[in-house]
Amino acid sequence: MSHDERVARFAGTARLLTGALVSVRKPTIAALPRPAVGAGLALAMACDIALPAQSAFLSTGYLKVAERRLRHRLATDPAGRHRRGRRELMFTCDGSTLPGARPIGLVNRVVPDDTLQSEPLRLAKSIAEVRRSRSAI
Q1: Does some domain include residue 137?
Q2: Nearest-CA neighbor of 28 among 37, 17, 36?
Q3: What is the mean predicted confidence (pLDDT) over 94-120?
Q4: Which domain holds residue 110?
Q5: Which pTM does this prediction carry?
Q6: Are 33 and 11 in contact (CB under 8 A)?
Q7: More confident position, 78 or 48
Q8: What is the DSSP string of the chain?
Q9: In-domain check, residue 135
């Protein structure tokens, strides 16, 4: 399989995964222990909530793998609040420090490395409890 064929296959798989995550009817949480670059960042952004560990790193990597649909997801912000910061990250491929990722809507909050295993589970249980109590009303 040629390099171009591998890239096309990978891009197709990334589209399927992001589409599947977006269509899930229940809230999804991305726990990011290490770098999320390119398609990894797109997968995290397809989730409803993104919780990176303090040691995580975010970057687009789109200069080398210019997959339009993933770039579009990064640049799209329905309210227009974060578009400039996201576009800068997309065009420069500079890695985003985590304090800079929250104001542009890439992450919800940063969690300590030692709680990355437990915090998403705690949050999921909390969300489930709220959903359960609301359905009882």
Answers
A1: no
A2: 17
A3: 80
A4: 3-129
A5: 0.69
A6: no
A7: 48
A8: --HHHHHHHHHHHHHHHHHHHHH-SS--EEEE-S-EETHHHHHHHHSSEEEEBTT--EE--TTTS--HHHHHHHH--TT-SSHHHHHHHHHH-PPBPHHHHTTTTS-S--B-GGGTTTHHHHHHHHHHHHHHHHHT-
A9: no
- For residue 90, the model assigns a pLDDT of 62
As to burial, measured by CB atoms within 10 angstroms (0-12 exposed, 13-18 middle, 19+ buried), residue 72 is exposed
CATH number of 85's domain: 3.90.226.10
* pLDDT tens by residue, 110-123: 999 999 999 999 99
Q: What is the mean pLDDT of residues 33-42?
A: 83
Residue 68 and residue 126 in contact, taking contact as beta carbons nearer than 8 Å: no
The number of domains in the chain is 1
Residue 8 located in a structural domain: yes
Q: What is the C-alpha separation between 68 and 45, in angstroms, rounded?
A: 15
Do the domain assignments include residue 136?
no
